[in-house]
Structures are given as C-alpha cells and as structure tokens.
C-alpha cells in the first residue's frame, strides 16, 4: 500500500486532514469513552495525526502502519511535541499483541484493502489484541450512501500537481476499484487499488463472527447511521 499511502498521499491530502484532527479526536474520545492512561492502538496510523493527538491527551498509544515513510514522519512529529508514542511497522493481519489494548482505533478508511479472508483476519486479530470489554472504533465510507451518488471520476489538485481517479464498482465482490493517475513535479505515476466496502449489517456480522459481542452503527457525527450518512462509524465491544 506504500504506492497509495506514501509521501504523495500526504502531499495531496495531509493539510486538509490535519484541519480536522482536533475535532476527530474529540469524536473518537467521546464515542469510545476514552480515559487518560488507557492503552490505545491506532491501526493504520499513517503519519500519526490521530495517534499523536490521543497521546497528547494522556493515552499510552501504539501506532501501527505498513509504510515506513509515514512512520518516520509520525515519530518525528511525536518527538517535536514531546510525546511518547510507540510506532511499529507491521501488517494489521498479523498483530503481535494479545489482550493488550483497552481501545483500538481504525480511522478514515484504513480497513478493507485485502481480500475477504484478509479483511476478516484483521478483525480477528483486533479482537485478540483487545482486553475483555475493550472496544474497536472503525470508520469508513457508508457504502449505501456512496452507491446512491456514485461518481466515475474525481480530480484533486494542489500546487500545480494533480490526481485523476477513475472509479468502478464491482457488485460481485463489493469492491470500489480505483485507477489513479498521479502527476507531481512533472512525473507521472499510474496505479490501481481496491477498497472493500460494506453495508452496516455485513460488517456487523463479520465483527460478531470475529469475537465481538456488541456492534453499533453511527454516522460521521456519532448519531445513528442513516441512508444520508456519508461516513460510517462502527463501534464494537469485545
């Protein structure tokens, strides 16, 4: 996933995402009932924008990601802020912890990039890494909303650079496939990736099968999920 979520991704989207980090951390804190001193895992932490905010509020935070360049930036930002965050390079399908965490955060569409067995394995690994009674917060697109407003192409521009995405929906696999042309500093990069999207009921059933005992579906503001919700937040209790 480094080709999708490396330095180029931060260049195009990082500044926009940073603007929402405080309010998003507020929402995570409230929905997960987080308290200072809790052990929190940020799964797919990227460059640490949420992990560092949680650490700044007194949590003992571990951030896991597969992209070394993003972890380097996360560590640098943590040092500059005087924060102690354990950043780990690793695959979310193979977590090294059992019964370690009070809370796990999987924020801003970081789940769904593997085949179905791989995605199910992620959920089982998270359940194993949580303490009994621990909670997972998983945020992603609301598939039902997206399909009702499907766009076959999108363009993002910044400082003369450009991303052109061409999207197609695969109803037999539940995958949103993106063909991306990235133009930055005069160089052109072509890549393709997919994201598995879920209706709430399917993701709920997967979580229950993975070992969770209760699952709630919420919108981007923490209210009950509806067809008009562009984002879906799932809170699952171990």
From TrEMBL:
Methyltransferase domain mapped to chain residues: 40-134
InterPro entries, per the entry: Methyltransf_25, SAM-dependent_MTases_sf
SUPFAM superfamilies (alphabetical): S-adenosyl-L-methionine-dependent methyltransferases
Gene3D superfamilies in the record: S-adenosyl-L-methionine-dependent methyltransferases, Vaccinia Virus protein VP39
Gene Ontology MF terms in the entry: methyltransferase activity
Alphabetical keyword list: Methyltransferase, S-adenosyl-L-methionine, Transferase
Taxonomic superkingdom: Bacteria
Gene Ontology BP annotations: methylation
Protein name: SAM-dependent methyltransferase
Species in which this protein is naturally found: Actinomadura namibiensis
């Amino acid at each position: 996933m480094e080709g999708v979520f490396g330095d180029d991704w931060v260049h195009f989207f990082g500044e926009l995402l940073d603007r929402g980090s405080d309010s998003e951390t507020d929402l995570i804190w409230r929905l997960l009932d987080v308290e200072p001193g809790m052990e929190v895992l940020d799964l797919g932490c990227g460059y640490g924008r949420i992990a560092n905010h949680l650490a700044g509020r007194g949590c003992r935070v571990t951030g896991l990601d597969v992209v070394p360049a993003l972890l380097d930036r996360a560590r640098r930002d943590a040092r500059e802020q005087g924060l102690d965050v354990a950043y780990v390079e690793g695959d979310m399908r193979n977590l090294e912890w059992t019964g370690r965490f009070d809370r796990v955060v999987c924020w801003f569409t970081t789940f769904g990039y593997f085949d179905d067995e791989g995605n199910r394995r992620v959920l089982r690994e998270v359940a194993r890494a949580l303490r009994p009674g621990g909670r997972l917060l998983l945020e992603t697109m609301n598939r039902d909303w997206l399909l009702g407003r499907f766009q076959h192409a999108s363009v993002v521009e910044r400082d003369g650079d450009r991303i052109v995405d061409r999207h197609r929906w695969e109803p037999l696999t539940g995958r949103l496939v993106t063909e991306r042309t990235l133009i930055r500093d005069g160089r052109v990069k072509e890549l393709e990736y997919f994201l598995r999207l879920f209706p709430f009921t399917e993701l709920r059933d997967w979580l229950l099968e993975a070992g969770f005992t209760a699952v709630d579906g919420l919108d981007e503001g923490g209210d009950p999920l509806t067809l008009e919700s562009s984002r879906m937040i799932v809170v699952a209790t171990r």
